[in-house]
Amino acid sequence: MIELVGFTIKTIGEVMVGFTAIMVHHRVWKEHKIDTRVFAEMKRERRVGITGLILIVLGYILQVAGAYVLYSPVY
Q1: Which keywords are on file for this protein (predicted)?
Q2: I want to staple 20 with a disulfide (CB 3.0 to 4.6 A). Which of 11, 49, 54, 67 is the partner?
């Protein structure tokens, strides 16, 4: 069960990081310039990207913990 939670959190984090990168590039492509509005959006997307990275790390930790608990010998 913990592996599923870890995998889900990791996947959500990866999607968030990928989405933020795409949105920043789309905004710059659409505007053809970087102004205060674009900077504000980039700042918001930076927060989403950092949250995504945290979720990736958290998912990894849960997957490792789940694998350790699942495969550790019980005495």
Answers
A1: Membrane, Transmembrane, Transmembrane helix
A2: 49
Residue at 13: amino acid letter:
G
Task: Give residue 67's domain range.
Answer: 2-71
Of residues 25, 7, 14, the one with CA closest to residue 53: 14
Q: Give the tens place of pLDDT for each residue, 10-53.
A: 888 888 888 888 777 777 777 777 778 877 887 887 788 788 88
Element spanning 59, H or E: helix 36-71
At position 44, the amino acid (one-letter code) is: R
12 closest CA partner among 65, 63, 59: 59
Count how many domains the chain has: 1
So what's the pLDDT on residue 73? 63
